[in-house]
Structure formats: C-alpha cells, structure tokens
User: Fold this.
Amino acid sequence: MRIRDIFSTAFTNLTRRKVRTSLTALGVTVGIFTIVVMVSLGIGVQTEINKQFEAIGLENIFVQPRSSNQDEFTRYLRPQRETPITAARIAEWRKLPNVVSVNAVVDVNAAINKRLRIAGDDTRTTGFQVDPGVGIDEPFQTPPTALAGKLRPETNGSIVLSQSTAQALDLSGDAQSWLGQPVQIILESPRGETQTFDYTIVGITSVTEERQVALTPEDSLGLKAWWFNDPALLETEGYDFAVVRASDINAARLLVPQLRDEGFRVQSLETVLDLASRVFLVINIMLGSVGGLALFVASIGITNTMVMAIYERTREIGTLKALGASRANIRLLFMAEAGMIGLLGGMIGLFLGWLAGLGLNEVAVAYLKREQVPLEGPFFLITPNLILLALGFALLVGMLAGLYPAMRASRLDPIKALRHE
Amino acid sequence: MTEPLIRTQDLRRTYQMGSTTVSALDGVSLTIDRGSFVALVGPSGSGKSTLLNMLGGLDRPNSGEIWVGAKDIARATDRQLVEFRRDQVGFIFQSFNLLPTNRAWENVALPLMLAGVGRAERRKRAELLLGQVGLAGRTEHRPSELSGGEQQRVAVARALANHPVLILADEPTGNLDSRTGREVLTLLQNLVRTQDVTLLMVTHDLNAAKFADRILHMRDGQLERDETVDQAEVAAV
Assistant:
C-alpha cells in the first residue's frame, strides 16, 4: 500500500464520525494550547530579560575592593580597604588570558562640594554629579548616546557633559558647537580653600534626567586627591572599582571565582542571568507539565476512540485482510488515523495559543505603558522551534495513543473479524 | 482445459470449542481444474466454509497439503499468504462487505490500492470492471446508494480487480432475493466462461449450486459426493 493511500484512507475514516473526532482532538487542543501559551510566555519574557542584560554587557565583571570595617563612608572619612585595586593590579589583570580590557573606575563622591562653570564666567555655573560611566545601571533604562563628540572622555583634561548640564550652563545652539568650550570644576573645602580644574568639552550625551559630567579616572582621582588632601590616594586606596571585560560569557564565568579568591567583591551579570535562566527553566518545565498532563488525558481519549473504532470496523478490518492487507498496512492505517487526531488538535491548539498570546501581550503592553515601564515585549514569543515542538508533540501523543489499538487491529483474525456482527 | 489448479491432500483441521475438540475437516482430498465453476454444498457445520477459507489462505490446516498452482499454501509464511490473497485470490462475501465510505469504483479498486497501484490506473481498471458487471453508470455511488444486487455486483468486480486465478464466493446469493440471486449467479457463470478464472462457491442452496459445472457435497468434514453438472441439460429444463 502506498503511503499516500494510507493517509487518504485514514483521513476518510476520520471524517466518518466528525463529532467524535473533533471531541477527541479537543483534548489535544487544550493540552497544546496550554503548552504553547505557557512556553511562549516563558520564551518571550526570557528574551526580553536577555535583551535588557545584553545592553549592559554580559561579559563584564565588576570588581570592588572589600571594606575592612563597617564604617559609613562619610564626607571626610573613608573606609579602610582590605586589598586596594592599584594600578599594578590593573596591569596584572590586563595580562590575563581571555581578558579583553580592564577599566579602572573612580567614583567621585556626591558629597564633595563641587560646581562647574564656563571658564572664567561665574554667572554660568551649576552643580553636577560625576558619572563613573560603568556600573550596574538601571536595567530598564535605555543607554545614553552621544549627541555630539564622544560619549566618554579619553584623554586627561577633557570632559563630557550631559545635555542637561550643558543647558544649565546656558550653552545655546547646536550641541556640535559646544565642543571645544573650556569649562572649569571648582572644589570648595569646608576650610574655605578652593581649587580650580580646567577641562575642554569633547562630547555631549543624550542624558536629560541628571546633570552629569564624565571625566577620565585620572582626572577623577585628581579631584578626590585634592579633596581628601592625599596625593598618594591611588597607592593607599586604589580605584573604587574596575570593570574587567572578558572575551566571552564563558571566560567571564571562569574569571569570577579567580578574582574572588584574590580578595575582591565580584559581581557578574552573567551569574545573575544564569540564575534567571535556571528559574525560567524550572517555570517552563512546570507550566509545560500542566499541558503535558492535559495531553496525557487527551491520549487516553484517543486510545478510547480508536478502540471503539476497531469494534465498529471489525468486519472492515477482516475484509481488508482477506483482500490482501498486511498487518503492517492495518497498523499504519490506525496509527495514521490516531496521529491525525493528535496533529489536528495540535494545529488548532497552536493557533488558539498564538491568538491568546497576541491578546495577552496587548494587555501586558498597555499595562506597562500606563505604569511607564519602557518594555515593549513581545512577552509571548512563538519561535519556529516552539511550532515544531508543539506539532511534533501532538503528533507523537496521537501516534503513541494509537499504538495499542493499531497493534490490536492488526492482530485480528480475519475469519473471526469477518463473522463479527 | 483439464489442467488442475487446486490439489489438496488429506486436509485436516480441528477447532477447540471449550473442552471439546471439533473436527471441521477430516481428510479432504480433491482436485479442481483451472477454469471450472465448482459449487461446495452441505449442511451447516459440514466444513465447507473452513475449506473455502483454507483455499483462500485465511486459515491453515493441522495437516495435509494445499497446492494452488505450484505453491503449497499450507506451508507458506504469513507474508506469503498475504501476497497470495492479494495477488491470486478474489473474495465474494454473503453480506458484500463493501467499505461504506468508499464510492463504488473505490471499493472495486481496493485490492489494487493494497497492491500499491497508482490512483489513475486503479480508477481505469475499476471503471472497466464495473462496466463488465453492468454498473457503468454507478461508479460514483456509495454502497448505501446501491441495491443489494448492485452491491454484490460491485463485490464481484472487486474480486476481479487483481486478475486473480481463483475466486472464492461464500454464499454470494444468501442476502439476495431469488431473482437478483439468479442474476448474480448468471454473472458469475459468464465470468468463468469468458475470463481465465476458477470459481469456487459455497452455498447451501441446491438451485444455486446448479449454476456450477461441478457440485461437491460435504458432510461431517468429508467429501461425500462429487457430481458433474451438464449445463446444457440444466438450460433445457
């Protein structure tokens, strides 16, 4: 018998009892619908989270020195550091294999009295924060872009201003025209001493929320050294933290324990993501299991339907055998029929799951928009793999459910079957 | 003309009915010529259906030989029996046994489908055969849309589909009224005369048996009497 004829015969047999076939397939529909909705939600949310993490950089490792005591970091007193991140240490890390770059970061404390002005013009002045540039930022924030010039200063004596800072300095016109403008940072100690530091604007960022400037680590260190009156600040205290960029996520994963052993606090987003994906795997398995349970029940329904079909068609099976159908032919006919029930239910379930995902996604996006969370989704993501998985699973469930009835039909004794009333 | 198609040697078959053993065939030896129309008559339980099933490869003897052509089907494997039924034998049943969802031509083409013949070729052959049994205009009808006599004609056409050497009919007129039954018997008679086919028919109706060239009487699992019918004489009466 040709495969095509097996399928067309099985299909014809399915259409004999349309209501029964539909009801049997409905069980599979429920199961596949549940699986598709749940797994597409899992995939969608995970993809969204990955997207957010990727913006920050998964191969980055954040290294901080440990504090030797619990002293608050006050305006004038700094905590002792167990192992400072010195320039020598940075150079050492740069030589490690799989390390692409090491960025030393100096955090200019917000409590330091400082203001920014247009060079020599005390009427155009503003307070500001020094943006260390790297760190674990707000994950849901879109990263800033450079409106003009650079995003970060590269040489000492240059400075990058946020848009809002530039506006506070009464700079008007095109951002491009602000480049090259000399500005000054003025520190004022509580003792009344002041010190002026000169810079040139080399870039404007798109940040509008905060008045920020960006400096090189050395320039930042210069500010702190004057403030704390400690010219050897780098030797005694070291950098505030360092961002070690590994060649890839796996290398990052290996570097984390190594740096931890050297006595530093180490954070890697990869470890967070690792945990997140493990949580999602568990959630996916749990949700998938609910659908799996529904499919199991559906498979019992299919088996029942097929066994009933055998009773109804015993004489037909006997006739087919007398006319020369082999056991394999009969078995394939029934397996194909059961598989088609599964596939039919699966296709409807997939379609309904897709529709439900679209609907629920609209609701989620509308809610997030109202709450002003800048996430766009889609939170229900149906990948080609999920389609294959859903349909393949539906087909498999159908065929497995049909296995026993098919074996039973193929083993019928033709003489007894022909005598069956 | 007198070349034998079927030769059986001392066929024995017993069935277990609860605790008692029933002997359905008790040493049947017979020869059936190629191109003959043989009727197998006897009371119920005489073993005629068992013999028919055995010649059709649906059942196996406990002992004895069944030669169809050059093949001993008593010793064939299951797979060989399937192929034997599919390629050499045509079956006609008392209750027609047409597939209710299939059209007339699809029912006729069923053995060809099982043999793996393509759809276009199957249809051509089925339409030809339906024409031969007088149902040229009924190819698209389903069994429920056909009368009993028409259904049995479809079944006859189906039995011819694979160019079988042997057609086995089990009470082919049992579910038909006598007039329609005679029409079907005449059709079968003509088939044997015009086509290269051998027909073995089980019946308990002696009037039906008279359409055959030869009548084998069975009783208690044995051949009781072998009677040759002169069709010219029957026609004269």
